[in-house]
Amino acid sequence: MRYVNKSPTTKGLSPAQLIDERIRLHDDWRGAMLARLRAIIKQADPQVVEEWKWNVPVWSHDGLLCTGEVYKSVVKLTFAKGAFLADPTGLFNSSLEGKVRRAIDFREGDRVNATALKALVRAAVRHNRA
To answer: Is residue 27 a part of any domain in this protein?
Structure first.
């Protein structure tokens, strides 16, 4: 898996604008997928804070929830404390060997289970608050 470095210029832009620009720069299925995942995260937690760290979109609420990375063949959501979250629908399909984080790789044509993803985001918020 290769990271696709289509980095927006960060000077003077807010994190939300940087995420918008990352989506715009990936004018294929990856940008559309990142936009869809972002919308689901924001629906799941209207108080989520969008940040820009490590040159990737970051969503936080009382601590880091997840990052959104764009690679050549996947869009990856990495949950910082995913190993501590219940995943009854089996969304996590990457970084399964880690002791703390877990990730979901979305490939071209994948359908997003919005209900399960929202539940995972809410579980991450609850975990951060605990």
So the answer is: yes
